[in-house]
Amino acid sequence: MLLDVICLSFLVALLRGGKIREFPKFNKIWLLGVSIALQLCSALIPSWGGVFISVAYVFILGFLFHNRRFEDMRIFMVGWFLNAIAIWTNGGKMPLDLEQAKKLPYDLAPVMNGTNFKHSVLTESSNFPFLTDVIYMPSIIPRVISIGDIFIMLGAFLLVQRLMNKPISLLQLREGKSYATKN
Predict the structure, then answer these.
(1) What residues have CB less than 8 Å from 144, skipping those under 6 apart?
(2) Which residues fall within 8 angstroms of residue 135, CB to CB, at 6 or more apart?
(3) pTM of the predicted model, to two decimals?
(4) Which of 58, 110, 45 is CA-nearest to residue 87?
């Protein structure tokens, strides 16, 4: 989900005159690596997908917590928390609105038959349906996203802007200003 957002973020930062002067020193980056490995395991062993995804979210939380000094990482944490609630209260999988998902160019059979490692079908019995994947997002890679995903994408975008020494404050976004502020 984030690869295209991160690429777009770098492109915007470069167009705004940003440069990578020094890659930030993230704390406990190995937690992120374990999380990614667990998510890959969930794809390889779909019957355990919910367990792997749930545990992966704990490792992501650890990584985010240890890097909360980055202001934008806190926005990312809000998104993580919202997604975690939806996933953990729905058996380790993110419910997906099939009506929105039908707009996607992907095969939905694994979701509908319960073999998808990451998603389940959104039903009336799904917990916190407003936090699940219910928002269709047409883009380079079309997808159905959640409110949590919006926070994650915003946090990632703003973090890249800050790392390239051209931070954008939320106030500037709200007011539509395009100039950068100094740290």
Answers:
(1) 96, 97, 100, 101, 103, 104, 133, 134, 135, 136, 137
(2) 100, 144, 145, 146, 147, 149, 150
(3) 0.82
(4) 58
